[in-house]
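Trying the structure run again after the queue cleared.
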Amino acid sequence: MKRLFYLVIIVFLPILAFFQYDAYVRQHPPGDYVYPIAAGIDTAYHDPEVIFQYYTAAYQARSIARHCWKHYKVDVMATSPLDPDEKPCFDLYHAALARAKTCEFRLLRSATLKQEGLSNEDIRQIELSGLTPAAYRLQLLAQNTILAQEGDVNTLVLEIQRLLNQQGFQIKTDGTFRDETREALKSFQLQRGLIPSGKLDSQTLRYITH
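Done. Tokens:
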């Protein structure tokens, strides 16, 4: 009886150990598979859906990778599938990864363009037109017109004075375009990398209203 007991132990103990080890391995993938969210992305991007897609794709990439390892022991971080049966896992993972990287590129680019003074609307127009940022700026300059200058008295001047004060300036809000309004506009234009003409043109208006 003892011999039979020992025989059962000898036969089944390695099998039990194998399944225990296999379960441990499946719960501990070779990598964490976390797709790191990039620092400096534009969280105020003109299309909120892209931000949602970015976070969703990043989470999906990690979930797919962990699922494929746990259930099929397929490491999607490997260079290529070793078996045709592994290909669906690789395809799903890299599709999610591609979506995340595409969204990330747009959000990082938008953040950079905003640092250069462009607005959400500017960035949207650049993406729609396919123009480079430099070409888009040239197009704006070609369309630039003077809207108000020193000596003008009207409601537009009044609104611009209010907007300048919201930017930290302290000038009279009386609708009269005098020297203090001109100097405030020049300072604002310098801050935004515009030509400091001291006149309200269409390009300055775009910057001051965003």
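The first strand starts at residue 146 and ends at 148. Worth checking whether this holds up in the mutant runs.
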